[in-house]
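Sat 14:20. Reprocessing the chain from the morning session after the first attempt stalled halfway. Input below, unchanged.
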Amino acid sequence: MPADVVVLVAVAGLFAIVSGMNDGGALLATGLKLPAMRPVTGILAMVVMIALVPLATHQVALTFVNRLASFDGPGGRAATSIAVLSAMAVVTFLTMKGRPTSLTLALVGGLTGAGLGWGLPVSGPYVALVLAFGLAAPIVGGLVAWAVTTLVVRFASADRLSGLHRAGFVVQIVAYAANDGQKMLAIFMIALSFSDAPLPYTTLTAVLFGLGAMYGLPKAGRTLSREIIAFRPLHGVAAELSAGSAVLGCSAVGMPVSMTQAIAGGLIGAGVVRGSGRVRWYAAVKIVVAWLLTLPASGVLGAVAAYAGKGVMM
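Finished this time. Tokens:
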């Protein structure tokens, strides 16, 4: 097996673990105050969905593989390795600080920057379209959460929150598995040159994600569920339903968006229903700043590293 394939497969495995650290805690954060589901059960449910949903649809994975840039030419795997490592470096730093950011944004930035740095074809219009959807996701999540919270306050009793939480969590993890959860599979696709979604690889990706989620739950989950708003179970239900709905809509057109961003927008939208004072705007601003730094930082790092790497290898 060529060295560039071995390296990228190893990077893909590490990327799946980091994705679990970053995204897994955020997916579970909204339900931490509801006794309806234990974290271990939630992680197991995520693993199952990440393994099975791509068998039905993996359009978002194909967006990462061949719509943002072309990585099937000479040096494509090396550039992809550099892109993923750049994205992980940025996101790991922020995760260690308890600031969940968008790994999807980081990967888009890393792939774009590494593609440009290596001299590969990059689709500027498609990158811009992905960024537009990424910007819209937390806004739509917030608006939908505001509407959902208003309806739940009026018509749902406290006894029904547990059932709504289960439904919202299922919607959320299906949406994740159909959307930005497929970024992990996409790296394996580039490494091993396949365009479908074989069950052994989706299962491997899901298991590695689950391992990362168990490690990353305390920090990533704590920031969303405790810091961004004065959290109540109602907010978690609304955020789950709204974020899942927004991300599923983007999945239908193959646009990768960040579930972490959609959840954060949903929590803010749910919080303002009871008054803007429930939102801890200082924490929210820090998370938004982390988002704004993620793409350019990973893009610049990927471009510089790819340019230097090409010079060394060529």
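Residues 69 and 122 are 4 Å apart (CA to CA).
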